[in-house]
Write a structure and sequence with these properties.
The complex is a heterodimer of chains A (527) and B (326). With 527 residues, chain A is of the alpha+beta class. Helix content of chain A is 28%, strand content 22%. Chain A contains 15 helices and 19 strands. In chain A, the strands form four sheets. In chain A, strands 1, 8, 9, 10, 11, 12, 13, 14, 15, 16 and 17 form an eleven-stranded mixed β-sheet that branches. In chain A, helix 8 packs antiparallel against helix 10, helix 13 packs antiparallel against helix 14 and helix 14 runs antiparallel to helix 15. Chain A is globular and about 75 Å long. With 326 residues, chain B is an all-alpha fold. Chain B has a two-stranded antiparallel ribbon. Chain B is globular, with a radius of gyration of 24 Å. The chains are: A alpha+beta (527), B mainly alpha (326).
């Protein structure tokens, strides 16, 4: 006989289970440096942007395929070629309880576009942002802008009333010598809220119980622990004092792989490491060739290219943590195609022949500028390449220097040959093509701002300028492919490889490796 | 006495001025902070504007003049990297560095002096030889290696102690202390031993050498002849007289402990001033570097002054007016 109470008990048990509090899951993670500021517009730097993603949100966000999806905006339409209308999400609350409305969007974009903002690039080409009603805004751009949504991923929305009250309408003010309140205090709409912060020691964030969305993962608390020393960082992971290390030291990765308690997740970064050469001066300053500039000759550049054994560098210098490529953009980037990414074969004999044809049968001497603390094994890569170039008769002096001095120098175009790495922040090839392949804008604009050897091809410029305003994806991609093809045929730069970035974590942790090296909390699980 | 102190205080300011000048001259070679502040996407216009706003476009002597003028008023400017007042940053980090240095200095004294006395008295004992051999290791191994070895043994292999950080701290006004929590004390052990090791061996060798010297003097022989116990001779007479050079060296070493805490702090991610300085160097954060170097110079000069004053207290001979003709 069934007891009459059984169904009621079962129902009660089910209710109790459903209502049981989610067990607290704390993710303690570490990397080399500390967060500089929590102001989402003060520093455009990878670690800072990672934490901005925890606390603040943009109108859109990336999904796992790096396609923008709705976040604070639920939908958008193009009213005319240069006007976008965004419909905002309702019932979203800031961490302090204030409701999110169109005023906050208008205010945040004004703040992003202020001179002191570091994130102006994410509002590039935006003329104005206007409120239509409480949950609708119109964005007017200077012309058609096909990458607007990608830009808006990193344009974070702050609360207007809170910012005015705390006097942080401006992102940074060095002249006033005052600390920015938003650097240490936050009020976003995002999944986590800042709880405490001790610089260089510990930053704690707790889950926002009123967030409009749900995490796919199960983290309820984030503890960030910067650990500068490589050996200590690896030790802390082994002892279990941290759950995840974003940048395990290269030399420790093979040993960590052997440890059954540690999981290594490899992923490629969109960053491409490449060499560039002075192609604009009639006589290049750091070479022994007088009266002419050897790097202006395509055959010389091709000789330099084919003398490099990218696979040997991958194996020996990078210990496998690189993917050789012939393209200036990575496969995750929209606009990349396989045919434009094929490398010219490593062929020292061809190199010597090309050099002879160009009039340098005995080679020549020049200086290669190289950073020594910017990219993975940057100086070692340069050393290896210098040795490879020596084999085809080129005598190259290596000039390695720390990043602070290096960038100051090469950005003045004060170099004959250099190594640089470039990541595609928007996951759209235009970002890279505009900065590296377009000819240099003499007024110092974004065009060619890192085209430090001043590669120039009018046909390429024309195509890139068209890509900037073409909104039809198929046509855009075809044009970007054409630019990459012409640039490869010109040997405008000598691409080398994509960096592989291993993340190390305890075996009970899983994470989705984002190609921009941000630890996205939405996809972290602790079991 | 007063004239002596005044003279030393004036010298202090001269030293600080010179340190600031040298530091500023060096900053020309640390690179361009603007590149870090604005990132790769910034336009030339932005760079020029920010450079002007920060006064970095001014010639060296003008920048230096501004720095000195503000520093005299206690204003060290704003960190280019963190956008916070440098004085606040240093004050936040001061407790961590001072607690670590204090702990290291205590270890050095508590271990170093007895070990020095012991090795002097039992010159030929096996333990004394072992201590001396061990002290060679302490003098010759670089600090960062010792730190990493300690982490490997006590954190990774044995799992007894944390490998990094300062543990939980308790705030007493603006001062944060790790002395009052278990995790704070546990976190202190490895870094303070690392930092103390060199000083310990130095003090031990110094005490031993001085003791041996003093034990050969006539008054020790007379003391023995008077039939005093070994204990009274060794500690009442010999040790007391070795202490003058020990105080000098220990005092000066306290300055080095604070200054060289940089390496220990980096290895153990100890959130002190040294770590702040290292980060500042990587990013060419000129105001932080300048303020830190001036601070360290001030510490050295102050300690020197205190040591000189302590001489007066310890050694009666120094109190005798000069010119009496020895």
């Amino acid at each position: 006989m069934r007891h009459p109470l059984v169904p009621a008990l079962v129902a009660a048990a089910a209710l109790a289970l459903a209502a049981a509090p989610v067990p607290a899951k704390t993710l303690r993670w570490a990397s080399q440096g500390d967060i500089l500021t929590f102001d989402p517009m003060a520093q455009n730097e990878s670690l800072n942007n990672t934490f901005s993603d925890y606390v603040y949100e943009g109108l859109v966000r990336y999904n796992k395929q790096f396609v923008p999806e709705p976040a604070l905006a639920t939908s958008w339409t193009r009213v005319d070629p240069s006007t976008w209308r965004f419909v905002l999400r309702r019932n979203v609350l800031f961490h302090d309880g204030a409701p999110f409305t169109a005023d906050d969007v208008v205010f945040s974009f004004e703040r992003i576009m202020k001179p002191a903002s570091n994130m102006k690039v994410y509002a590039q080409g935006v003329r104005s942002v206007a409120k239509v009603d409480d949950y609708t805004v119109d964005v007017v751009t200077d012309g058609p802008n096909p990458v607007l949504l990608r830009q808006f991923v990193d344009a974070k929305i702050m609360n207007k009333a809170w910012s005015v009250k705390n006097n942080v309408v401006n992102p940074q003010n060095f002249a006033a010598k005052e600390e920015n309140h938003a650097a240490r205090n936050t009020n976003g709409t995002g999944p986590f809220m800042l709880k405490s912060r001790e610089p260089d020691a510990k930053t704690v964030l707790v889950a926002n119980p009123r967030w409009w969305d749900r995490l796919e993962g199960n983290v309820t608390e984030i503890v960030y622990l910067p650990i500068k020393a490589d050996a200590t960082r690896a030790a802390a992971l082994v002892t279990g004092e941290v759950d995840l290390v974003l940048d395990p030291p290269t030399q420790d990765v093979p040993r960590l792989r052997q440890n059954p308690q540690i999981r290594i997740v490899d992923g490629t970064e969109t960053r491409i490491i490449f060499f560039g050469f002075d192609q604009w001066r009639d006589e290049t300053p750091y070479a022994n060739v007088k009266g002419r500039n050897p790097f202006k000759d395509r055959r010389v550049r091709q000789a330099l290219y084919q003398a490099i054994d990218a696979d040997a560098i991958r194996r020996a210098t990078m210990r496998g943590l690189a993917v050789p490529t012939g393209s200036m953009v990575a496969p995750q980037v929209s606009g990349w195609t396989e045919d434009t990414a094929k490398r010219l074969p490593h062929d020292p004999a061809a190199s010597r022949r090309l050099l002879a044809e160009a009039g340098y049968p005995d080679g020549f001497e020049f200086t290669l500028d190289c950073p020594n603390n910017r990219y993975i094994n940057d100086e070692e890569i340069c050393q290896a390449v210098v040795a490879m170039w020596a084999k085809v008769g080129l005598k190259v002096r290596l000039n390695a220097m720390p990043r602070a001095t290096y960038f100051q120098r090469i950005q003045k175009f004060d170099t004959s040959a250099y190594l640089l790495g470039w990541a595609t922040a928007t996951f759209d090839a235009l970002y890279t093509l505009q900065s590296l392949v377009h000819s240099v804008d003499p007024r110092g604009g974004a065009d060619g701002n890192f085209n430090l050897g001043k590669y120039a091809n009018p046909k390429v410029d024309e195509l890139i300028d068209k890509v900037k305003i073409e909104v039809d994806d198929a046509k855009r991609n075809a044009m970007m492919r054409e630019v990459l093809r012409i640039h490869a045929a010109d040997v405008g730069h000598v691409p080398l490889h994509q960096q592989v970035i291993p993340w190390a974590m305890r075996a009970n942790v899983s994470a989705f490796h984002r190609a921009d090296n941000r630890l996205d909390i939405r996809w972290v699980r602790i079991d | 006495m007063l004239a002596f102190v005044l003279r030393r205080v004036l010298q202090t300011f001269a030293v600080l001025g010179v340190v600031a000048l040298i530091a500023f001259a060096l900053f020309n070679y640390t690179g361009d902070p603007i590149a870090f502040m604005l990132g790769q996407d910034a336009t030339l216009e932005d760079r020029t504007r920010l450079r002007a706003e920060l006064g970095l476009d001014q010639p060296f002597y003008v920048q230096f003049g501004h720095f000195v003028g503000n520093a005299v008023q206690g204003d060290f400017g704003v960190s280019l990297r963190q956008g916070r007042k440098v004085s606040t940053l240093l004050r936040e980090r001061l407790p961590a560095t001072l607690e670590l240095s204090l702990a290291a200095a205590l270890i050095a004294l508590v271990v170093g002096i007895p070990a020095g006395v012991y090795t002097a008295l039992r010159r030929h004992g096996a333990v004394a030889h072992a201590l001396l051999a061990a002290s060679l290791v302490g003098v010759s191994l670089p600090t960062f290696l010792i730190g990493i070895l300690l982490i490997l043994v006590f954190a990774v292999q044995l799992g007894w102690l944390p490998s990094f950080g300062r543990g939980d701290t308790v705030a007493l006004g603006w001062w944060t202390t790790g002395f009052l929590t278990t995790s704070g004390l546990k976190s202190l052990i490895l870094p303070s031993i690392t930092l103390a090791l060199f000083q310990t061996t130095l003090i031990m060798r110094l005490v031993r050498a001085e003791m041996l010297e003093v034990l050969r003097t006539d008054y020790i022989r007379f003391a023995r002849a008077r039939g005093l116990t070994d204990r009274a001779v060794h500690f009442g007479h010999a040790l007391r007289n070795t202490l003058v050079p020990v105080i000098t060296i220990t005092g000066l070493q306290l300055g080095s402990i604070i200054a060289f805490a940089i390496i220990t702090e980096t290895v153990f991610q100890w959130p002190g001033m040294g770590l702040l300085f290292i980060q500042a160097v990587t990013f060419a954060d000129i105001p932080v570097m300048a303020a830190y170097l001036c601070f360290i110079a001030a510490v050295f000069v102050t300690i020197n002054l205190i040591v000189d004053l302590l001489y007066y207290a310890v050694d009666p001979r120094l109190r005798v007016e000069r010119g009496t003709g020895h």
